[in-house]
Specification:
Layout (H helix, E strand, L loop, with lengths): L12 H36 L7 H17 L4 H25 L2
This protein binds ligand ISJ.
Ligand ISJ binds next to helix 1, helix 2 and helix 3.
Length: about 100
């Protein structure tokens, strides 16, 4: 086993890349917050107009578009599908919560 090279903090690739990741994660969470705030608006509209939260055809389109966009970024369809399913599950939870508040 080799001794790790001593580097200055400015040239430490592990530290620098972790700083980059922390910054990217912050943006990812901000974007998810923005997306779910739009979902809330849709949830309010659906609750008022008696439209079901789940729109399977629309989510199918969302999945197709994001899997394709993921491909362009070298991300697997499995990963994008799991990610979008998790986001969709939360969207439905939020929309159902809004609907329940209106009763
Ligand atoms: C946001 C909506 O509600 C649900 C959530 C979706 C999503 O998070 O992309 C898509 C379809 C619906 O199941 C919508 O109908 O557009």
């Amino acid at each position: 086993q080799s001794t790790p090279m001593i580097q200055t903090s400015a040239s430490n690739p592990l530290q620098n890349n972790r700083i980059k990741i922390d910054s990217i994660d912050k943006k990812l969470i901000a974007l998810l917050g923005e997306r779910e705030r739009v979902v809330k608006e849709i949830g309010i509209y659906k609750a008022k107009n008696n439209i079901p939260a789940l729109q399977a055809d629309r989510f199918k389109q969302v999945l197709e578009k994001t899997v394709e966009a993921g491909k362009q970024e070298g991300l697997s369809a499995t990963f994008i599908t799991e990610l979008m399913n998790a986001i969709h599950k939360e969207s439905l939870r939020i929309e159902e919560e809004i609907k329940a508040q209106k009763q």
